[in-house]
Amino acid sequence: MSTTLSSLNPLSYMGVKRLTPPNLSIESDAPTTSDIKNFDLGAVWLDTTTENVYMLVNKDGGVATWQLLGGQQDLISITTPDSTVVEPTDGNINFLNGSGITITGSGSDITFTATASPFILQWEVITDATKTIVVNEGYFANRGAGVTFTLPAVSALGDVFYLSAINAGGWILAQNAGQDVRMGNQITTTGAGGSLASTAIGDSLFCVCSVANTSFVVISSMGNITVV
């Protein structure tokens, strides 16, 4: 039977276009906007190198739009800051609230809200002859011959530390090159030659870094502190 236009009645029922599966192109790279010739909407492209699958969803203006459908770029796990790998269960990964952290979701957004917690200073009793100070820690000097504390070589503005003598040997606060400590209207000699020292049990001080790595200020003190 002829199917030329001359043999067809334009008013007759033309039938339904037969459904066909989309064209499948197997390539070794990803499609580009130029990959449009001989492709119909719905065509599928498999990139064997990355194992990603794409579908042609738009050809407007002679520019191909290929939508990534899936493949190795799909989310399969999350690595947490402690190097734990979290894998989905039934395609889902849960975010849980933590201490001081609240997580909420809306639409495609996830919001992490942190609640400020009180600053907790770690304290340590020192019985050794020397100790390099760790910022944001407090120390009790408890050695009969005294403890020499050395300022931290690296510190940031606002870092703090405490010193307190609970033994008659007391403490000395030594400095690294280029460092100094201001106590009221006095300031130590810059560098290793400068220091602060307790003179009796109970002598204490609270210091704050005022210039990163180099300068500290005594915010409060107790006793008769020697400034060198």
Features:
single chain; 228 residues; mainly beta; 7-stranded mixed beta sheet; 5-stranded mixed beta sheet; 20 strands; 0% helix
Description of the molecule:
It is a single chain. 0% of the residues lie in helices and 40% in strands. With 228 residues, it is an all-beta fold. It is elongated. The model has no long low-confidence stretch (mean pLDDT 87).
Helix content: under 10%
Strand order of the largest sheet: 9-11-13-18-19-15-16
Low-confidence stretches: none
The Cα radius of gyration reads 36 Å
The biggest beta sheet reads:
7 strands, mixed
- Please provide the count of β strands: 20
How are the secondary structure elements laid out?
Blueprint: E1 24-27, E2 44-47, E3 52-58, E4 65-70, E5 78-79, E6 85-86, E7 101-106, E8 109-114, E9 122-126, E10 130-132, E11 137-141, E12 147-150, E13 160-165, E14 171-174, E15 180-183, E16 186-187, E17 195-197, E18 204-211, E19 215-222, E20 226-227
Parallel strand pairs: 1-2, 9-11, 10-12, 11-13, 12-14, 15-19
Antiparallel strand pairs: 2-3, 3-4, 5-6, 7-8, 13-18, 14-17, 15-16, 17-20, 18-19
Task: Write a short abstract of this structure.
With 228 residues, the protein is mainly β. The chain is 0% helix and 40% strand.
